[in-house]
Amino acid sequence: MPYENEFAHYKPIKRITESVQVQALLKRARVKPDSPESISLDMVALTQLKPSDWTPDFVLAIDGSMDEERVKNGYPSAAIGYVTVASVLLDVAKMMRLDAHRPVDPKEFRTIENAESIDGALPGCNVVIDEELSAVHSFRRALFELFQCRQMSESEKCESVLDTYQALLKYKPINDNSPQRCPYEDCLQLDQSYQRGQDEYICSCAHARSLFSTDALRIHEFMKPEGSNQSMLTETMNVLERIWMVHFLRTLEQEKLLPVLQRLAIVMDGPLAVFGAPAWLSSAIKSELSRINDVAKQAVADDKFDLLLFGVEKTGAFMEHLTELDKGPNGEHDTLPRQSAMLLTDDYIKQRIIFSNSEREYGRNTYFGRKAFYKTTSGALIVLNSPLLNEDHGDLKRAEYTQFPRLADIMSLLDTLVSARYRNSVTPLISAHAEAAIPMNLGKRVLEKLARQLMSETSKKKA
Fold it and tell me: Concatenated DSSP letters for 369-394?
């Protein structure tokens, strides 16, 4: 390991790339064949889908941020993590009105956004709170308290983020393939198995110590006793983002505001997936989204209605592959047709993007969405994730546009929302990331207020 601010020079780097061992390993590595028998993409143009004239009045973008800071408490490497999840509401209708009358006053343009953020501080290495036994147990308690004291609505009738999480926890099988141990190493139970429960409760062994429903996420198991815990904080942030999205939808249901979804689109940063120890949440979220979607159909009295929800991946193997697809034989860019979506099957993903010989479909245990590529009317390249709202949507052996809910509306919306500020970027996610990085709207009840306003306007239109 190098010293702080000590970097390798050019010669050592070159030595590695020319190493006999490296070259020998590369000779053993498989190379993807460029054969004419390779699986082709299922491509669909926006014009083929007969897009409607529908555009949402608002887009809700959800993104998170995390940081880890050293603290002085007398112990070396002591650190505290800080996690933020931002929700930014973009007034699309107003944005389009302003855009039609350029130049736009920057002050006026800033009024198209409203933001709401939730945040929390979490113990890291060598930080022990209250009477807890260690940094790990301090993290467990702080994570539980973070979920417990955050909610979208001030109404006593509405649930907290913890309630939302515990609703998802009910979908988790009691006996799964990875049995969980009690978080206390000296637990006196014979098998030391974790006893799942609700809220804060007591371990049944003689020590009678506190257990938490959030222990089932198992994030605490990956805390490093020395050094940085950024990977654990990233996992916490990703989980909180996705639970917050479900919390938003469940709160609309409890407040009888689901009809506002007719005028709202939701975009998430990253894939519609949960990885690592909390991956069981993926299946739970898929089931809950399907249930909420069915309830929303009844609320709007339209059996053909589906939520407009999607994720956008900014980096990674799929984005790299899409960028390569857009190159011509001589390296020129912009060869894919604009306003066209490319729908991915399991075979295509395994043959062209993520090598795998597994019979299990790609992302079966981690995704509650499936991937597609889209090239916007301006030429931006987007890796989008569409939610699995029924069993047919999750059949990755096929790739048909009917398996991607509201695909035409998503494509049209991306044409509107793509930003020129950054390459292949989407305006709402830029705003959400900025708010998450420097939260200026902590504790505001923007989402609930706007939902009630939209519901009132919708009711007046029907009247």
Answer: EEEEEEE-TT--EEEEEEE--STGGG
